[in-house]
Design a protein that fits this description.
6 strands
Length: 139
Amino acid sequence: MSDAPIFTRRRSPSAELMGSEFVSFDEETATATVRYTPPPSFASPRGAVQGGLIGGFLDEVMGTALLAASDGELLPLNLDMNMTFVRMVPMETITAKGRVIRVGRRVAFLEGELFDKDGNLLARATSTAMPTSVPGGET
């Protein structure tokens, strides 16, 4: 078994489907950075990533931030998630940043952002979530 943290070595099946690649975690700001390469099946009729799937990217990066900030012990169970679409998300590799704003025993406040290759903001989300134990208890 690896000594590397769970969030750097094991991705969920949905994260793998999204073309997820863990990049880094900044402990000081509780910020996770993940890259996504959307598969062709994520394209909308406009040729950009379909809106609901954008929510998947944002949800996954916010979850990664909580998982990393809790040393692999907690995952969020969303109570709500609000998204703002700023630009169409291109069918190319994008960068996501997820942050833990605040976490307590019963509620966590998270935010996420997606950026294109030039650093332009594409979409952002906030989530109020219940912190829950990682299924299976592997850390």
